[in-house]
Amino acid sequence: MLTTHTAAWVAEFVLRQPVEDWLANEIFLALPLPSPLPFRLRHTILLHRLASDLSRCSPSLNTLHSLDLLLDDRPASSSSSSSSSSESMAVAYRAVALHCVSLSFSASNYDVFRTFVDLLRSRVADLERAGPAVLAAEPLKKLRMEIEAAVESGIFRGLLERNTSNEALDAIRVYLKAAMEELGPPFLVLAAEAVRNGIELGNPCSESSAKSDDKVKVSGVAGGVGERTSTLSLAVNGEVVLLETNPVTSSTLCDTLDRDMGNEIARKQNAVVRLGKPTDKFDPMSAPEVEKVVNALKSSCVDLHKVVVDPLPDAVMKAAEVLKNRFFGMTNDVEELEIQRQAGASGPVSAVKNRSKDNGVDEIVEQSRKNDALDVDGSMQQRKDDTVQSNREPSVEKQLDGIDNKVQAATTIHSEMKGTGISNTDGVQKRSLMDRNPTAHTFEWGEDPIESSSEKSPTSKKITLPSPKRKKASSPLTILENKKFVIRRKLKRWSSLEEETLRKAVGKHGVGNWKFILSCYSEIFEDRTEVDLKDKWRNMTRH
DNA sequence: TTAGGGGTAAGG
DNA sequence: CCTTACCCCTAA
């Protein structure tokens, strides 16, 4: 039986492989991961997201968001500027932030640009107040100055001339490398290696380990439950190599193993567990077995890669082309841009106060503030319904941020792409044909007051009150003038994969968690909404 | 956010 | 004509 801790190790290992996002999702779903996620695993997930953005060459607000989370998730001990990844993190943060600013500006909607810049400013200010040392780094100081300059001048001229995308990608690449090195190899690999070499698992400070100078020791755990930090140190030939220098952790491998054995009494901070010796009170984990598991995992990943090719990148590119073409031929969008411009003209602060129902920017501003993160994906989008789409991402964020985080949607990286209007490097605002028209409204012909009163017999003395349902009198002419017709999405029949996935998901997560299910399988339920899932389930269970 | 009623259009 | 997918609305 797989325990939550071993599941975390496996998850960590899998994410360190070049595994497709959807596959990672599937594996995550199948694993009984601990809640909250261990620090190491959280970190690995976020780095995987970055790597994913990098591989698609599409730094976006989601990339910035990942960096944001990584920044917030830094263990206190590594906030010192000595951390090797701190500097590159700061550089990457700045580069990606500037790229996003540049994108938001070239999206040719100044209010959106202002909103985003304001949010970014306050975020940087928040970070500064919180005082992580990473902000002391020169690049972020520079970022703050650049943002200030942008706001003062109103225009980000310098940025538009630069290739911010490439700068961001390069910076991410550098940071990823440093962060990966800092994180060290996956725990399973270390463990397998150590066990193969005839190791001893235990506290590096304990007497027994100090004596064994011809062996490799692994101490700590790949991710202690609920711990922000984890110690993973290797002692090779008596020399201790600390991969992460936090010596104090309440949840060590010993703890984990103890818990797994149900032996609460033996749970001690400095307990030493020796593996590989038949006389142990714990079941020995033989080296060949661990090796076999690791190899099997590796080979299965490779096999899956050979068999399955992720169709999404292709699809995304094609969709981007279509949308781009459509953008230039579509006058409606110009109209909507204008509407949004007017709605947002009072600035982000007042926009929050004067929140109107149909103003997508307002909702996003408020949502962003609520989340206290730069999750302003929707700012680049024009429409309320797009905001709903982008709401999938905050669910990921919650899971990563929250204490009771669950893992299922943690790597829904593709869904981020779909929910983000500016994730592509062209920076053109996009609108899908699939989207609803926010200004569309329905009209009931049946009980028009004008109609009814005009047709009413003048002799009729009966006093009638207007139905509360009717809000205003409108003639058919007015309606024809005002009405924008709803464009139905193209009918897309449910594939058997979708049906099967829905069935499984409902079996696993229960009926009614449509939003959650959608976020878990967003790759499979492409272009579907929660309501679609609900309706489909209704259909499926009807007969 | 979801459930559920109910309407409409597409497509077999 | 029937089923399915999509859509809208309202209550909880």
UniProtKB/TrEMBL annotation:
Residues 493-541 form the Myb-like domain. It comes from the Eukaryota. Residues 342-398, 440-474 are annotated as: Disordered. Residues 451-464 have a biased composition (Low complexity). InterPro entries: Homeodomain-like_sf, Myb_dom, SANT/Myb. One of its GO terms (molecular function) is DNA binding. Residues 355-373 have a biased composition (Basic and acidic residues). Residues 493-543 form the HTH myb-type domain. This is Myb-like domain-containing protein. Keywords: DNA-binding. It comes from Ensete ventricosum.
